[in-house]
Amino acid sequence: MRARFAPRMRLSAVLATIALAGVLAACGGDDDSGTTRRDGGGGTPGTDLGPRPDGAPPPPPPVDLGVDGGGACVPTIEICGDRIDQNCDGRETPCGDTDMDGINACRTGDDLTRCDCDDARADVRPPFGTLPGAPELCDGRDNDCNGRIDESAACCTACASLGASRDRADVCTPEGVCDCSTAPGLEPCGPGQTCCGTGCVDLNTDFANCGACGAQCTPQADRCTARSCTCGTGPACDFVTMCTSGACG
């Protein structure tokens, strides 16, 4: 029985080998030489898609999220157009001014304190020219894009002792000191004074900051009295009359 069926078994093996060779020839083979490409996802893993056509764009790079030691995404300032989700919101931020606040989103190479560190929110923007950055809103965000969160005197606990007079300071330092940053020293302004862009001032009498920081009286007045611009002991003159030596005319 063995002698009679041996030739038939050898013939079956030969036919199987020929069939396998035909399948490999039809598929073009795969020697992992880099001339073939494989489906990176969606289809069967490792599926040979044949040579990549000339001029075809390379596959997109994988999204590279910053991760902590436990594998969670750690939010940082989003860089537009780099295909990396730095702020962990699950999407790429387009370049330009998406939130229409006049400041463009941060791009690769930008000073991250001078570009919009959150271009999805109009209440977040850095200083621009003579305009200050957005005010800190005590909302857990870096509203003015200076790299610190809720550091304004209105938000930080170091200035809580000022009570209703928190305008005597404008910031808490990284070391936790309540300070008027525009005045000499490292402390808030004295009682009755307000921390303005020019330092500590008395809004009741300061001609350049009458009633509010930056509210300068016009030539229709010659002094600031009780937070109002006045000409001498009377009210400010009308808009076509100058105040001269305490009198209008």
Description:
With 249 residues, the protein is low in regular secondary structure. The protein folds into three domains: 64-143, no CATH class; 151-200, no CATH class; 202-249, no CATH class. The chain has one helix spanning 2-27, and strands at residues 171-172, 178-179, 194-196, 199-201, 223-225, 228-231, 234-235, 243-244, 247-248. The strands form four sheets. The protein has a three-stranded antiparallel β-sheet, with no helix packed on it. A two-stranded antiparallel ribbon has the order 1-2. The chain has a two-stranded antiparallel ribbon with strand order 3-4. A hairpin with a 2-residue loop joins strand 6 and strand 7. The longest helix has 26 residues, at 2-27. It starts with a helix and ends with a strand. The relative contact order is 0.05.
